[in-house]
Amino acid sequence: MKISVLTIVRGRQAHLENQLKGLLQSTVLPHEWIVVGMNQEVTLPDCKRFPIRTSSVHHLTEPLPLAQARNHAASLCTTDGMVFLDVDCIPSPDMIGKMVNALQAEDRLWMGCPRYLPAGAADGDWQMDQLQQQAVDHPLQPQLGDLERQSSERYEMFWSLCFAIGQSSFKRIGGFDDTFDGYGGEDTDFAFSARKASVPFGFVNAVAYHQHHSVCKPPLNHLKPIVENAERFRRKWGVWPMESWLNAFAERELIEFDKDDDSIAIHRLPTESEIQKATSLTPAGF
């Protein structure tokens, strides 16, 4: 099976070049690497091992049109197999090969295995064995151990940072719903759409090393799109996503949130000072 790696990016140039360095060490090389910039053009070093195809999407009001960018990347893909890999992830040498094996075994929505790096681990001239030694598992993700693959009915555990899917299943799902503008909820919506379309879900022990960066906890810097996407999700699926974030916003009296209601009242947006105080060096995802 031929497989492509699809990456969307805004900023994060060092992360993007680290991902390329990781891809070049893969035991199974991608047929192509598709990189889509969000409201930016993409610049990358020359690569002779596989084709790099770059493109961009532009949104008038939203700096991170995640769903739109992933759909655009998929539309450019020329292979049956697709691996979506967030820009802050470095693939382990056997990640692509394990994704190929998983898709050949069954065309599921396969989520990979993100492992998290400490600050500085991927700075400078890093070596892959150093990443392997320093990376830690996420406590909420399944520990597969010697198991390479595991089926799951818990679609709510899907994260879009590292996953594989066949073109036919992606089209059956309908791709990402690009009415979800910006950050928050679009990946859970995609997983729920997969369940509705009877596309099975599972985990594969295909490791991607997540590069360290600061994160706002809760994501006050994305409050408005999170609230709007949460309301959209509620209308579509009848449940609230991202409840821990919404509760955290409510505790700060930024919003009025009642899980039995169908809408959220925004009292005010956070100040820059509040955003800075909420920003930490905790690895993103924790």
TrEMBL record:
Domain Galactosyltransferase C-terminal: 154-197
Recorded GO MF terms: glycosyltransferase activity
SUPFAM superfamilies: Nucleotide-diphospho-sugar transferases
Residues in Glycosyltransferase 2-like domain copies: 57-127
Keywords linked to the UniProt accession: Glycosyltransferase, Transferase
Pfam families in the cross-refs: Glyco_transf_7C, Glycos_transf_2
InterPro entries noted in UniProt: Galactosyl_T_C, Glyco_trans_2-like, Nucleotide-diphossugar_trans
Family: Belongs to the glycosyltransferase 2 family.
Name of the protein in question: Sugar transferase
